[in-house]
Amino acid sequence: MDSQMLKGLLEGCILSIIWEKEVYGYELSEKLHEAGLTMVKEGSIYPLLLRMQKNELIVGTMKPSATGPDRKYYRLTAKGERALQLFDESWAQLYMAIAYLRRNRDEHQANDSIE
Questions:
Q1: pLDDT digits (tens, 9 = 90+) for 48-85
Q2: Residue 20 and residue 54: Cα distance in Å, rounded?
Q3: Per-residue pLDDT tens for 84-115?
């Protein structure tokens, strides 16, 4: 996936993951990788989390870890839930538009191969 395209979608992906449950940074990175976004580097997530906190989309809370130092867990705010809803609506519109254009292209290619 193109990195510019990914940048525009990553915040929505992160909001979707945090919506499910509170997560800490490394866990978030693992969930993105499980979803197939293996090109997202762990180090690129933290600046985005900081920006999302600054914009009041998420809140981070330090909690003890059974396996080491305390971890910062992130959860959505009401503003973050609204942002996720808007992301979902925008994504649905974009997906439909792209699917339409691809169908047209596929139909055009099929017609060209028949001729």
A1: 999 999 999 999 999 998 888 999 999 999 999 999 99
A2: 21
A3: 999 999 999 999 999 999 888 777 676 666 65
Bridge partners of residue 53, in order along the sequence: none
Give me 30's structure tokens: 């693992």
All structural domains of the chain? 3-114 (1.10.10.10)
Query: Strand 23-24 relative to strand 58-65: parallel, antiparallel, unpaired?
Result: unpaired
Surface-to-core class of residue 76, CB atoms within 10 Å of its CB (0-12 exposed, 13-18 middle, 19+ buried): buried
* CB contact at 8 A, 37 and 14: no
Query: Is the model's pTM score more than 0.90?
Result: no
Report DSSP letters for 54-112, one per residue.
Answer: HTTSEEEEEEEETTEEEEEEEEE-HHHHHHHHHHHHHHHHHHHHHHHHHHHHHHHHHHH
The one-letter amino acid code at 17 reads: I
